[in-house]
From TrEMBL:
This is ABD12 lipase. InterPro entries: AB_hydrolase_fold, Hydrolase_4. It comes from Grallaria varia (variegated antpitta). Residues 6-76 form the Serine aminopeptidase S33 domain. SUPFAM superfamilies: alpha/beta-Hydrolases. One of its GO terms (molecular function) is monoacylglycerol lipase activity. It comes from the Eukaryota. One of its GO terms (biological process) is phosphatidylserine catabolic process. It holds the Pfam family Hydrolase_4. One of its GO terms (cellular component) is endoplasmic reticulum membrane.
Length: 178
């Protein structure tokens, strides 16, 4: 799998869904690694086709894959060793894996919703907050960029935001504001 291949696959899926959806809204929803794919596809759609996806929802996002890899807990033990940057972080770039959501959100014109749980132990919530700040500072209409955090006491972690019973209403409210 490659970053380019993932993006191409999402655009093919978008074309398929758009051809069958009539006037229904289509949004890109990415979780974790998929947040980088969602922002890539939304940007490519906007820049290369002049088409804006109806909205982008990012669940447990990160800014870019290099920064994410530097902060995920599994790399903590290796960060102290010389060569960590070169062997781990630079190898992602050599493989063409960048997933620059931080750069993508700067140019997206569609509504953007970022969801992050405070107890996410895979991708720290500060990465979601940083992505939100980047998007909000670049977006012309600041009301179309929203960040929702879920308190630790809910125990949603990295993988269970989608199980929150309030999520459908939160997303519906967000989509209705556009």
């Amino acid at each position: 799998p490659t970053e380019s291949g993932f993006t191409t696959d999402v655009l093919a899926l978008y074309d398929w869904a758009k051809a069958r959806s009539g006037n229904s809204s289509i949004l890109f929803w990415g979780h974790s690694l998929g947040t980088g794919i969602a922002t890539n596809a939304a940007r490519k759609l906007q820049e290369e086709r002049g088409v804006q996806v109806d909205a982008v929802v990012l669940e447990s996002p990160y800014t870019n894959i290099r920064e994410a890899a530097a902060h995920i807990p599994i790399t903590k033990i290796y960060r102290q060793f010389p060569g960590f940057g070169y062997l781990i972080l630079d190898s992602l770039a050599l493989a063409g894996m960048f997933f620059r959501s931080d750069e993508n959100v700067k140019v997206l014109a569609c509504p953007l919703l970022i969801l992050h749980a405070e107890d996410d132990s895979v991708l720290p919530p500060h990465l979601g907050r940083k992505l939100y700040e980047t998007a909000r500072s670049a977006h012309q209409d600041k009301t179309r960029v929203k960040f929702i955090t879920f308190p630790k006491k809910l125990g949603l972690g990295h993988d269970y935001i989608s199980s929150n019973p309030e999520l459908p209403a939160l997303v519906r409210d967000f989509l209705n504001m556009k």
